[in-house]
User: Which sequence fits this backbone?
């Protein structure tokens, strides 16, 4: 059964998390979750907007809500937790009449703010349970030890994000187990990686993200699996910076869960774009008997 | 009638927003009012004396007092009338405090409303009749529900006072939570050493009948005449034959049964005696864990029991007991810490509760009094105690303070140092609550003499790392985040209502609050009574409290029962329904609508007629509303009396 | 910091403004420190977050709005999720940032510049053009060495587009910004 959702990719999908976008689309297609991009969607403003003004943030979001509301869809889904938080928070705040009017005035469109808004992960898990996905696995990830890193805002605050447990979420765990991977208990599931502060204060990210890498490595993980473009970037693109700052030698691949899911479901590399990962996933993929990717010199 | 009206100032409580003199003046114009005055404090001695004098001086035969709520002083003024020689039901109150002065500030409006309420009261009083209380017998036996320290105290006090006591305990042994403690604050007395002799006294007292492993099934009747069904749960052992020798425990092959007494630290055998000083010291079989009862095989205990006491076919048994009073002493349970996901949600084996730690500390506990980490059995060196887990926390619906956790944490920190001299304890606290005698000195000892490091701040999260735990808290006085490495973390879990408290309250027909704690009659002045005659409270079932307070309440409840039983008969309340036989057509609608089963159908000259069982009637008035003939009337609230009030208020 | 005064320097209007803007009741805070305990950036703060809440309760406007801490907050929501009194601390931190801006008290300018660079890219193109945003940030701060080591990797992986792609109707987004500024 196919379900149609308004898809909000988020700005990083165009650039720094392009592999997340590609693999998300591929996974959704194979599971019967039909994505229709919100036409001409604009940036939700992420942290810079809500940290500058709540009305501005809501207005940037509301334009997208209004466009989506004219589509014939079950709801809006997005792969990025920050976009998700902004979309949901705005939707909730617009239940207040005074605020609703102010936002509509700025956006110059009617906005109902009544569409359900969910993450891709939640939609995938609810549409097709991990057990059902397991039945379609053709290349089980047997032998791969992963730690699931959810990131700080995907499930918090719980009364806004309303999905998984805010302290010990298990949706990624269950999904990875269904795909055949060994999921290691990870104490830093919801600890912050440092977010966008890396740009202005690198030592904050190297410390926070460094701790995540250190713990994952000490647990014997082959890889970290994430569902957030910011976390993935901090752990992957900045892994060298982290190593230099902390005197470590991590070579920990940071997968998006959609990439691993696509791999297990037998999708082609063009759907996974493992080549986009900065830290080579070759060794980890060899654990599951997947062919190593061509690596450009680092 | 010659009615006297007294309008109370209640200091400035009423007089602040009501012109009481004007109200008295208005009252003088009401029909049959012979005397009206305002008075400073009607309920005070001079105030009451004033009423009695007026009755004598003016030949008054009915009194209206306009003052506070009848719940406050109706009983007081009724006694005043009796002292003056009048029937106490020739009295009405107008509530011009809670219903007037406390809810509005406009003096003119208030004064008018007060005058109208007085007018209504006068109108009713003119239609009142004398009522006379009946008498009924009291069964001078008392039931104590709950065998913890409060229940034990109550039972012993009643029994020593010559009363027959039925003690009903849900577990297979009495002793409650106190029996699980290793030592008690602030004296560091051994808990079972001080409680044990009391428990033995209960077992041996000729006046006490102990039903252990039993629960109250239903309660019928009323004060002085309760009829209680008790369910004696199947133990699968004949307790008459069982000597408590414990051989069955040694040979039982099923060793993974839930160990309730030891709070889940380790497991126990399917047949077991909870602890060496258990009273009664009899074996009980956990049916879920027993191989014979669940699968039909084994039966080792039956084969080797020296007195052949095993009875696999045993069933629950219901027994009846009649008592005149009931004391509820059902204690408390501890907060489920797994709700705190940030502390592991129950997944971390070395993050345990305070009561589990007590069992580790106890020499008769599962580790013989050696503190061991549940994960690997090693002795911990760094122990972190976290206070206020499930207390003072609105986010888990426990905003209240449990009152004893600061004290027991200090005790546990002290004991830890005794057990493991090279250990280091840290205690994360928000405040230290140590109000009792020698309590604050005790907590200071933990810090000053036993080296416990107290850090003022909450703990945000506990994370396992390399076989130990990182406790991330705050030191708010220093103004900083704090990380402490811990081998073992003890959560000072808060108290909550005992499981099943609400259901028992409903059987006893007493009130309970949103947390399940039983409601006392008055939060200040009636801590051990309820609003249900004949049912009393003792101990933590009324609210979390420490041992001295529980014991005090046990004795207090016992004294209430003694007072109740000091008379041979009790007066019944005449404010019950009554049937005018000539009007009754015998339709029996009242019988079927009475919620208390207080109406019976009888025969009068061959015709069916309704009849009220006065001792059961609660005076709710549903029958009076139901009766199509108006034949059944609630005395003191008859149709005519109430309509008189309505007519006084709405004359047009 | 000069001695706080519970009567003279207590800026009641400030407290009211924060409570209104965040819709939080600060009297509920009993200073347990849970927020500080769980804050991942607390080690970098000049004033830990529970102390900021205390200063708020004391109406110490200047101390709060001129802190660096509010700019180093990652908006990770740990404080909000774990507060026993269910105070949305993260939202209060947002409101403090809003107010600090308005008062011209930005103690960590690079953070503000990063956000402004981001928003100006959004205003221009409708979405974030990452390379353009970086250039804007460098221009504002003079920190031209920022993440220079990442650029070749990112470009090599095709993750850093060097040409902006505006949405079809960037003017709609520009109007949002303009109308927002007008109503302020």
Assistant:
């Amino acid at each position: 059964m196919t379900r149609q959702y308004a898809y909000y990719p988020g700005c990083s999908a165009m650039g720094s998390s392009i592999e997340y976008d590609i693999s998300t689309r591929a996974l959704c297609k194979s599971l019967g979750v039909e994505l229709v991009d919100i036409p001409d969607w604009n940036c939700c403003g992420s942290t810079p907007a809500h940290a500058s003004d709540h009305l501005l943030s809501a207005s940037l979001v509301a334009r997208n809500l209004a466009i989506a509301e004219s589509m014939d869809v079950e709801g809006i889904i997005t792969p990025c937790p920050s976009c998700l938080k902004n979309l949901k928070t705005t939707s909730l705040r617009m239940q207040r009449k005074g605020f609703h009017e102010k936002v509509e005035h700025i956006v110059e469109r009617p906005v109902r703010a009544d569409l359900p808004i969910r993450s891709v992960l939640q939609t995938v898990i609810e549409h097709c349970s991990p057990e059902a996905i397991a039945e379609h696995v053709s290349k089980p990830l047997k032998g791969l030890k992963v730690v699931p890193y959810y990131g700080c805002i995907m499930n918090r605050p719980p009364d806004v994000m309303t999905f998984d447990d805010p302290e010990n979420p298990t949706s990624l765990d269950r999904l990875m187990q269904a795909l055949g991977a060994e999921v290691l208990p990870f104490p830093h599931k919801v600890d912050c990686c440092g977010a966008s502060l890396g740009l202005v204060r690198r030592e904050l990210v190297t410390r926070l993200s460094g701790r995540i890498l250190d713990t994952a490595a000490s647990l014997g993980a082959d890889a970290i699996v994430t569902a957030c473009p910011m976390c993935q970037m901090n752990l992957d693109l900045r892994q060298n910076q982290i190593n230099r700052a902390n005197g470590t030698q991590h070579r920990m691949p940071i997968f998006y869960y959609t990439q691993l899911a696509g791999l297990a479901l037998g999708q082609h590399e063009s759907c996974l774009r493992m080549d986009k990962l900065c830290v080579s996933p070759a060794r980890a993929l060899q654990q599951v008997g997947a062919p190593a990717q061509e690596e450009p010199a680092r | 009638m010659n009615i006297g009206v007294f309008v109370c100032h209640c200091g400035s409580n009423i007089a602040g927003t009501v012109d009481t003199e004007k109200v008295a003046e208005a009252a003088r114009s009401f029909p049959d009012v012979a005397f009206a005055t305002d008075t400073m404090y009607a309920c005070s001695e001079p105030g009451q004396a004033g009423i009695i004098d007026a009755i004598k001086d003016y030949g008054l035969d009915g009194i209206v007092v306009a003052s506070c709520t009848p719940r406050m002083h109706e009983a007081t003024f009724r006694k005043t009338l009796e002292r003056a020689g009048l029937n106490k039901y020739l009295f009405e109150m107008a509530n011009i405090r809670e219903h007037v002065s406390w809810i509005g500030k406009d003096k003119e409006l208030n004064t008018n409303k007060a005058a109208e309420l007085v007018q209504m009261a006068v109108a009713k009083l003119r239609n009142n009749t004398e009522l006379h209380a009946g008498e009924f017998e009291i069964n001078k036996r008392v039931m104590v529900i709950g065998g913890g320290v409060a229940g034990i105290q109550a039972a012993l006090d009643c029994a020593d006072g010559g009363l027959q006591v039925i003690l009903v305990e849900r577990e297979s042994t009495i002793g409650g939570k106190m029996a699980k403690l290793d030592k008690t604050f602030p004296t560091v007395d051994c808990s079972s050493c001080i409680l044990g002799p009391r428990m033995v006294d209960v077992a041996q007292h000729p006046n006490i009948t102990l039903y252990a492993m039993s629960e109250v099934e239903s309660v019928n009747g009323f004060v002085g005449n309760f009829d209680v069904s008790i369910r004696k749960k199947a133990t699968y052992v004949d307790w008459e034959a069982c000597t408590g020798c414990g051989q069955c425990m040694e040979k039982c092959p099923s060793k993974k049964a839930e160990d309730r007494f030891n709070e889940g630290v380790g497991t126990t055998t399917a047949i077991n005696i909870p602890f060496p000083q258990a009273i009664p010291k009899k074996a009980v079989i956990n049916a879920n864990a027993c191989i014979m009862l669940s699968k039909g095989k084994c039966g080792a205990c039956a084969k080797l029991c020296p007195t052949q006491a095993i009875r696999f076919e045993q069933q629950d048994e219901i027994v009846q007991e009649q008592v005149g009073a009931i004391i509820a002493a059902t204690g408390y349970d501890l907060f489920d810490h797994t709700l705190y996901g940030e502390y592991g949600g129950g997944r971390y084996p070395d993050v345990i509760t305070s009561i589990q730690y007590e069992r580790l500390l106890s020499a008769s506990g599962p580790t013989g009094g050696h503190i061991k980490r549940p994960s690997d059995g090693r002795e911990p060196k760094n122990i972190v105690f976290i206070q206020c887990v499930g207390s003072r926390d609105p986010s888990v619906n426990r905003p209240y303070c449990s009152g004893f956790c600061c004290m027991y944490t200090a005790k546990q920190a002290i004991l830890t140092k005794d057990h493991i001299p090279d250990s280091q304890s840290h205690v994360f606290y928000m405040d230290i609550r140590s109000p009792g005698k020698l309590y604050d000195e005790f907590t200071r000892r933990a810090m000053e003499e036993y080296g416990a490091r107290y850090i003022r701040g909450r703990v945000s999260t506990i994370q396992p790392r390399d076989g130990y735990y990182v406790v991330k808290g705050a030191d708010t006085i220093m103004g900083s985040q704090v990380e402490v490495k811990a081998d073992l973390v003890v959560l000072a879990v808060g108290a909550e209502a005992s499981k099943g408290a609400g259901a028992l309250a409903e059987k006893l027909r007493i009130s309970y609050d949103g947390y399940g704690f039983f409601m006392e009659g008055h939060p200040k002045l009636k801590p051990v009574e309820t609003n249900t005659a004949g049912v009393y409270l003792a101990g933590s079932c009324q609210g979390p409290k420490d041992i001295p307070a529980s014991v005090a309440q046990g004795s207090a409840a016992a004294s209430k029962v003694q007072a109740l039983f000091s008379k041979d008969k009790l007066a019944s309340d005449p404010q019950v329904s009554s049937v005018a036989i000539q009007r009754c057509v015998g339709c029996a609608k009242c019988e079927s609508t009475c919620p208390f089963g207080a109406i019976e159908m009888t025969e009068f000259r061959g015709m069916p007629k309704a009849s009220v069982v006065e001792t059961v009637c609660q005076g709710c008035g549903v029958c009076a509303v139901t009766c199509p003939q108006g034949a059944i009337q609630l005395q003191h609230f008859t149709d005519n009396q109430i309509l008189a009030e309505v007519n006084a208020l709405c004359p047009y | 910091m000069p001695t706080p005064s519970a009567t003279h320097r207590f800026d009641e209007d400030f407290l009211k403004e924060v409570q209104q803007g965040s819709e939080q009741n600060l009297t509920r805070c009993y200073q347990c420190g849970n927020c500080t305990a769980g804050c991942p950036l607390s080690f970098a703060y000049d004033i830990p977050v529970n102390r900021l809440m205390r200063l708020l309760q004391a109406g110490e406007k200047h101390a709060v709005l001129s802190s660096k801490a509010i700019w180093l907050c990652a908006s990770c929501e740990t404080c909000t999720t774990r507060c026993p009194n269910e105070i949305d601390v993260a939202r209060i931190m947002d409101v403090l940032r809003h107010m600090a801006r308005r008062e011209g008290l930005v103690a960590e300018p690079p953070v503000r510049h990063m956000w402004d660079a981001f928003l100006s890219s959004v205003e221009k193109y409708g979405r974030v053009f990452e390379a353009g945003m970086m250039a804007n940030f460098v221009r504002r701060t003079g920190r031209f060495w920022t993440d220079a080591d990442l650029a070749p990797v990112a470009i090599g992986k095709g993750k850093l587009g060097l040409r902006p792609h505006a949405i079809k109707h960037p003017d709609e987004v520009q109007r949002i910004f303009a109308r927002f500024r007008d109503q302020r």
Summary: Chain A touches chain B at residues 165-168, 185, 187-188, 215, 218 (CB under 8 Å). DSSP finds 15 helices and eight strands in chain A. The first strand of chain A starts at residue 3 and ends at 7.
